[in-house]
């Protein structure tokens, strides 16, 4: 089944939120888990706000050059349990590699 652009974008956002919540909480980690380019990973993190999700960057104390991780502070209308339970299906639908 070919996904529409709207569904692909929605699934990508859900999956990236899941990655952040499960520990792949930096742009490089998201890039590694998905194979997406840096700009797409950054844009997807920023686009979580369009789903009323609150995702914030937390710099590591004492680090320079924006070293840190992202944290989902509020999932908004999205059920994080549902996302976690369906993460594998989302990953497969998006064609991302299996996580190791």
Overview of the structural elements:
This protein has 100 residues and is α+β, with helices and mostly antiparallel strands. It has a single domain, classed as Arc Repressor Mutant, subunit A, CATH 1.10.10.10. 50% of the residues lie in helices and 13% in strands. The chain has 4 helices and 2 strands, in the order αααββα. A two-stranded antiparallel ribbon has the order 1-2. Strand 1 (54-59) and strand 2 form a beta hairpin. Helix 1 (5-21) packs across helix 3 (38-47) and helix 1 (5-21) crosses helix 4. The protein starts with a helix and ends in a 6-residue tail after the last helix. It comes from Halomonas saccharevitans. This is Helix-turn-helix domain-containing protein. Pfam families: HTH_43.
Keyword list:
about 100 residues, globular, alpha+beta, 2 strands, about 15% strand, Arc Repressor Mutant, subunit A, 4 helices
Sheet of most strands: 2 strands, antiparallel
Structural class: alpha+beta
How many helices? The count is 4
Strand percentage: 5-15%
Whole-number mean pLDDT: 94
At the fold tier of CATH, the topology name is Arc Repressor Mutant, subunit A
Quick take:
The chain has 100 residues and is an alpha+beta fold.
């Amino acid at each position: 089944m070919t996904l529409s652009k709207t569904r692909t974008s929605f699934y990508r956002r859900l999956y990236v939120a899941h990655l952040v919540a499960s520990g792949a909480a930096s742009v490089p980690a998201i890039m590694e888990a998905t194979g997406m380019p840096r700009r797409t990973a950054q844009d997807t993190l920023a686009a979580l706000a369009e789903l009323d999700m609150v995702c914030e960057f937390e710099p590591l104390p004492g680090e320079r050059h924006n070293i840190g991780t992202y944290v989902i502070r509020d999932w908004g209308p999205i059920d994080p349990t549902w996302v976690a339970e369906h993460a594998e299906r989302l990953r497969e639908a998006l064609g991302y590699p299996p996580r190791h």
